[in-house]
Amino acid sequence: MQAYLANLIDQVYTDFRQQLTGQECFCDLLTLNFGTDSAPNYQSPLVQQLYLLRYYPAYLVEYYLAWRDLFELNFLPTHLQVLSIGCGNAPDYTALRLAARDTGNEYLYYYDGADRVQWHYRDPANRPARRYHFSDIVFWTGFRRAEYNVVTFPKSIGEFSDEAFSSMLAALGRSHFTEDRLCLMSSVRASRAQHDKEMLERVLEVFEQSHGYKRLNPSHNSTQLPNQPVSQVSGFYYPEDVYRFLESLNEQCPAYDCCTCHDCGLSRRPMLNTKGMEYQIIRMER
């Protein structure tokens, strides 16, 4: 994990610095804010880059630990068929690949990632059993495979608009699922924990009402990670130059005014610990 993160952060930081050159101001980056009901503008390459620089190392650790927990349940067969809804640049795929490797689990896995935005910087690992689908969820009519036994929401379940979420529920309801056991895995945002859990509850109800599954553990159950440096898991220490650049990002803006822009919210440090991280793994069976 350490080498993968070092290469990724170096590439993203280089591209981020280059793309900032010539920008009249950095105000569009302020959409990367999870304190509102609006999702960030992930269509912007700059927003994608800033998101990855701020959050990717920590979120990769979170998903890595979640996959290890799922392995320890010994609930699913060794052939995992994963549907990731709102996959972004697929950190849950990379976490699955690394967790399977590091724990010695000889899992075979197929991964379908779905997102309305085509993200850059996806895992370059050459695995044929991995596909991505980029389209607006409001147009989805169903999911292409019937063999899924893991459905994941990597920090995505709370970012759907009402229309998109209703469309996603309808698509799940119309889809066909052949596996008698499956797991739903959802990463919970600390700032919107109750909301995200309520959204997952609605997904669970679709599997119960439309497909005859029963949940085997309460939907309010979750794993809250103890506060520790992500480097304890990843072995990756965040580069000092990148850290300093991000914490003073507002001052790098060509339109920066020390009076009006001092506390604009742009200069946020990267997430380097697991404080507030929480995820849910719900087992279902029929």
Folded structure, characterized:
The protein is of the alpha/beta class and 286 residues long. 38% of the residues lie in helices and 15% in strands. The protein has helices at 2-20, 45-73, 91-103, 162-174, 193-211, 231-234, 240-247, 249-252, and strands spanning 79-85, 108-115, 130-134, 150-153, 181-188, 214-215, 223-224, 278-285. The longest helix has 29 residues, at 45-73. The radius of gyration is 19 Å and the shape is globular. The two termini are 36 Å apart.
Features:
eight-stranded mixed sheet, 286 residues, alpha/beta, single chain
What series of H and E elements makes up the topology? Answer: HHEHEEEHEHEEHHHE
| CA radius of gyration | 19 Å
Morphology: globular
Strand content: 15-25%
Give me the secondary-structure category.
alpha/beta
Low-confidence stretches: none
Secondary structure tally, helices: 8
Biggest beta sheet attributes: 8 strands, mixed
Helix content: 25-40%
- Count the E strands: 8
Distance between the termini: 36 Å
Mean pLDDT: 89
Gist of the model:
The chain is an alpha/beta fold. Helices cover 38% and strands 15% of the residues.
What's the topology here?
Layout lengths: L1 H19 L24 H29 L5 E7 L5 H13 L4 E8 L14 E5 L15 E4 L8 H13 L6 E8 L4 H19 L2 E2 L7 E2 L6 H4 L5 H8 L1 H4 L25 E8 L1
Parallel strand pairs: 1-2, 1-4, 2-3, 4-5
Antiparallel strand pairs: 5-8, 6-8, 7-8
Helix pairs in contact: 1-2, 2-3, 4-5
